[in-house]
Amino acid sequence: AGGSISRCQHAHRAGQGKIIGYMQVRIGPNRVGPKGWLQPIADAMKLMFKEIIIPSRSDKFLFLLAPVVAFGPALAAWAVIPFGDGMMISHLDAGILYLLALTSMGVYGVIIAGWASNSKYAFLGAMRSAAQIVSYEIAMGFALVGVLMAAGSLNLNQVVLAQQGSILHWFWLPLLPLFLVYFISGVAETNRAPFDVAEGESEIVAGFHVDYSGMAFAVFFLAEYANMILVSALASTMFLGGWLSPFEGIPGLGPLFAFVPGALWLVLKISLLLLFFLWFRATFPRYRYDQIMRLGWKIFIPVTLVWIVVIGLGVLGRVGPWFD
What we know:
mainly alpha
């Protein structure tokens, strides 16, 4: 799983400069390798050979532990994500609860990094990030309650099987508000633009990892990209049919694409959602901190609560084809 995530991170990082450059009508990286596609490898080698400088007044043990704590949950969460019917590392019946617990733990790495650095800028960034993650975790949790009600199971394999039929049977349609809330909250949880106030260069230099360098900084960097891929994988699994083909159940097209493995469909859906991460970064300016908090508490949480009631009525009335 770690090797697959690493390759996905490299592919996303390589495409990021090119895609954002295209969106902003500029060339992008074009020096390292053919048309600049080896730039991520050059960046990784640069960080590998840089010294890890530890501030003299910091807590050295916690300073080095923080990147590992940030990266670990993003890696462990892949244990319950199915790439096919029964194709997962661990077949947990409470997979959604496992994911909620793990994704909440990533904030500890950020808090430890900000506190252990003994820097006011790092600590301010850590507090911003912690408040943001906790706020949007509530909205994400309520969105998952809607998925649980629609699928009738906490097992991610069963969640995907509950979406069998065609693309119109997937949960993105009846749970569209929850899908949008979940994905945008995922962007906020990963501290990506336009929710990157924890790293606001114009306000607090670089946030919680301002004192990190070398491979310690690289692990934080990997954790951010691993969380982006994880959010995309979870959204694909719970709202976009996971490994299911979008042409399933369509006369003429279903048998034509039956040879495509389910894992490939999942990878394509993850790639599509990762493209939205890049689109947001290239398009939207950074929000103010109060705007981010207002969006989470006053818009997303009420929307999810209202839609949970709507789903409850749909399940009670056995509205087809999703809740029958």
